[in-house]
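Title: Prediction job returns without error message
Component: structure pipeline
Severity: low
Priority: P3
Assignee: unassigned

Description:
Job completed but the reporter wants confirmation the result is attached to the right record. Sequence as submitted:
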Amino acid sequence: MLNQHTQIDEATGLDSVLSGFQALAEELEMDDEIRNDLLRSFLDRCRGFLEGLKQSVEMDDTDLFERTTHSLKGLSGNMRFTELNQANENFTDAVKQGDTVAAQMALQTMHNEYKKLEKAILSLID
């Protein structure tokens, strides 16, 4: 179960970024060690998926694109990171529609959402 001292300080404004995950961790009665390991793994995997998305677009690799967006959707959805998940869906739709401007904007939004999550996660686990 999450301890009070490990909760994100509401004054930082980062608590809402992790609210879905916090609820999941409480539902599963995750201890701090498991929670922190899971969050570190998320950061590592998500970083790799974002790089894979960038490469898939640059190389026009449809298979890599589909695998990576699907994996990122599952990862962000399972962790209840809804903003990142929505940005991924917007990116996927834009690429499939051939809208490069919207795809670039959505990819930037995904990177921004990742950075918000990274900041919130690191403030929680460090």
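Comment from assignee: result matches the submitted record. Residues 17-125 form a domain with the Four Helix Bundle (Hemerythrin (Met), subunit A) fold (CATH 1.20.120).
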